[in-house]
Amino acid sequence: HGCPPTLSLVEQLSAPCSSAIAMQSPPGSPCSTGSSVATAPEDSQAEELHGPEVFEAFYAKQHLCEEEDWRLCWERLRLPLPPCVRIREAGVEYALALLQAWHPKPVPWCPGAWRLQAENAVDEDGHYVAQLAKVLHDGHRAGMISRQETASMLPAMALDIKPDHFILELCSAP
Fold first, then answer.
1. What is the 3-state secondary structure (H, E, C) of the chain?
2. Does the global pTM surpass 0.70?
3. 10-residue averages of pLDDT along the chain (174 residues)
């Protein structure tokens, strides 16, 4: 498809981790040891545990909510995240016209950010549909559109970064 798949929150959280933050992850999660494989101490065979099943089992054991609420929560966590973009101020009208088929809605707390609401923006495999992928690719090459999840927009908003600030960004993405 040319574009990386839009992963569900569960897929993102159960992916292998390599950061120091992984040391604070829940036991049995793929990030708890800083690698993609964790072992279960009670298993004499030291069976490898990883993936969404381990993530789900760990949090299900916490009994954070009623069973029916947990089932609904888990269903929603498995859904692909809606595509989100930032649009340069100078090209907003043009970019929105190109994205109209996917029902862009502004992200109320982040100026210049838009969430694409149409369910048909992502196919069953979590990839952008071909037409949207082309619009995003062309918009990115033109310097008009940047794809970014709203969760990644939040830190910059919370930090209230100003033009005179120096930022050292140490995050990485696949």
1. CCCCCCCEHHHHHCCCCCCHHHHHCCCCCCCCCCCCCEECCCCCCCCEECCHHHHHHHHHCCCCCCHHHHHHHHHHHCCECCCEEEECHHHHHHHHHHHHHHCEEECCCCCCEEEECCHHHECCCCCECHHHHHHHHHHHHCCCEEECCHHHHHHHHHHCCCCCCCCCCCCCCC
2. no
3. 52 49 41 41 56 84 89 85 90 93 95 92 86 94 92 86 87 62
